[in-house]
Automatic annotation (TrEMBL):
Xref: InterPro entries: Gate_dom (IPR011642)
Protein name (record): Nucleoside recognition protein
Domain Nucleoside transporter/FeoB GTPase Gate: 3-84
Pfam families hit by this protein: Gate (PF07670)
Transmembrane residue ranges: 6-26, 33-52, 58-78, 90-112, 132-156, 177-196, 208-229, 236-253
UniProt keyword list: Membrane, Transmembrane, Transmembrane helix
Amino acid sequence: ADILYYYNLLSYIAFLVEPFTSLLGLPPEASLAIISGMFLNLYAAVAFAAPLDMDAQQWTILAIFLGVCHSLVVEGVIMKKIGISNRYSYTLRILGGLFIAYTATFIPTSLYTSSISTSEFSQETYTSIYDLLASSLYNASLLTLKIILLITLLIFMMDYIKQSKYVQNSAKNVSKGFSLFAGLILGITYGAGILIKETNSLKKRDLFFITTFLMICHAIIEDTLLFVIFGADLTIIIMVRLIWGITLAYLLTEIYTRRSGFN
């Protein structure tokens, strides 16, 4: 990801998403932010979007789309590990992200408010590719350590909770609830360890519902606040993603249950 950003390689394919910027009411220059968020991460997307003169509505719509459709390669691998095909996860997140963000364009402009004053965002720059690789190795090692500590703590917490008699009698319900909680708060990347561990014991229907919901609505705090800093509307982002996450998860689960016959 850092190498792609360093050499600005994604700018060569940004034109592919330019037609969608007008559909979403975003400036054409936002196409590079969108493509960076889809293939890299939200921080890269914000780095490209920060210089653009966007209002609260535009920041909110961008946040909704990228909240659903970001880090596709990394999180697609995690979904594949859980048991969801790449074709389904990519299709759901790209088309679902566009559809959900488009519905937000119908919300009256007067309802969009910026709860936090905008801030400047500075992307780290490197003098050479070697400096970039060294920094990437350090950051990756630090991130890995944080994830290991976080997931270890959560697993210990989960195992402790499961020791109670009440929980043992409803272990599957606890696994479903904890999987949703981990994905909703931590996200797919940070919550991967919990999701992989807990979803192994779930029925196919429950697994399909949880993963579909989380692909639409995950990391609801961190991802949202990153855009709120620049003027996006906190309430609209959360409500739109929650409502559509529940709605699409329910509808798609019903469709696939009837077609596939799993339970």
